[in-house]
Design brief:
Elements lengths: L7 H13 L2 H9 L7 E5 L3 E7 L9 E6 L2 E8 L18 E8 L10 E5 L2 E7 L14
Antiparallel strand pairs: 1-2, 2-7, 3-4, 4-5, 6-7
Length: 142
């Protein structure tokens, strides 16, 4: 493993913090609207895995998932569990309300075998990579 390889996001964050100050990230974060839940996506040998933070949902019936070709659409509504209006909130980093996230999948996936689980505020969707998605070399003619 190469220990000298830079960790670019962390390196940039550290350098920007040194120049701009620690408060910069808090201030810039308030300018960027939060438009939906936080999502991670990764790939292992057999599947594309999508994780979405959906806190406060009492049951999975409030989440809609659709696979449209090679696009995964996640829709739902995250309730605000405390009675405070937006004009009284001093710092807002969390997302509440209706959302729709559309994710382009990096590889062709199979419609069969898709598994979705929701537990303790985390939605996990496993989409099997299409076995028949083979690469074809295309010859170039003169």
């Amino acid at each position: 493993m190469d220990n000298d390889k830079p960790n670019l996001p962390n390196d940039y964050f550290r350098e920007a913090s040194e120049v701009l100050g620690e408060d910069f990230w808090q201030e810039i974060g308030q300018l960027i609207p939060v438009t939906g839940p936080r999502i991670d996506m990764y790939q292992d040998a057999a599947a594309i895995v999508v994780l979405a933070e959906l806190p406060g949902l009492e049951n999975r019936d409030r989440i809609q998932l659709r696979l449209e070709g090679q696009t995964l659409r996640i829709e739902g509504e995250i309730p605000r569990l405390y009675p405070v209006t937006d004009n009284r909130i001093l710092v807002k980093e969390r997302f509440f309300g209706r959302f729709e996230r559309t994710l382009a999948l990096p590889k062709p996936v199979s419609e069969t075998g898709v598994v979705a689980r929701y537990s303790r505020g985390l939605l996990v969707v496993e989409l099997p990579i299409e076995a028949s998605a083979k690469q074809t070399n295309i010859p170039i003619r003169d």
